[in-house]
Design goal:
The chain is an alpha+beta fold and about 280 residues long. About 35% of the residues lie in helices and about 25% in strands.
Amino acid sequence: MNPVEQAIWFIESHSAQPLDLDEIAQSGGVSRFHMSRAFVVATGRPVIGYLRARRLTEAARRLAQGAPDILSVALEAGYGSHEAFTRAFGDQFGITPEQVRAARDLETLQLVEPIVLDTSLRTDLPPPRLEQGRALLIAGLTGRYGCEGPGGIPAQWQRFGEHIGHIPGELGNVAYGVVLNGDDLGNFDYVSGVEVADFSDLPEGFVSVRIPAQLYAVFHHAGHVSTIRRTMHTIYTQWLPESDYEPADAPFFERYGPEFDPRTGEGGLEAWIPVKAK
């Protein structure tokens, strides 16, 4: 099993026990950072969000079976009070625990069942090149996204595209999509940018990102930009587990060269994954 499959098994077999991200990562034999990023890429869900959803799903089943004490169900699901459980339950299902117990019915609830990884998402992946990347100064537009809803990124690129070629200190003819500041819930910042000589005189609304020199595994994605998830899925569920490397806690970026056509999404791109030796 790869680390994500091991984590899923661990969550399912220990869901009644107190768990945190460190313990889940340890079960997969990887770092906290590696597990957090790999789980999102492989499943589309943050690992802690999946753990919470699975616990609430099993709690809903117990309530629908007529559990007499809601507080006991809450405690078993990892919540310290009836109030905290009710809030989380409502956020997950849009209904109260009392309503589920009274109805004895789960038909209207979107339950979260154990994940089975979709191996059809894997693709034939040419071996990457290892490259010691130099430090970069990136300037551009940014947005905050969740792993389940990054749909605003294409629109962000459209807004940024109007600035390309007119940014003070702009270097070269390459654009960068930088992913950074990820958290345990799968949220991350995404910067559409270009390399600049310095951060002076940037347009209003621009952000600046310093990317330190770092070792990267560089993968070429030849397909349409919309299929990048297949490449990332293969990197994190197959290449990294089988390699001598693990992700480093540093920004990951997509590199769009002059051959990329932003109007069609064709032309290919490179995925630069920061890595370190295991």
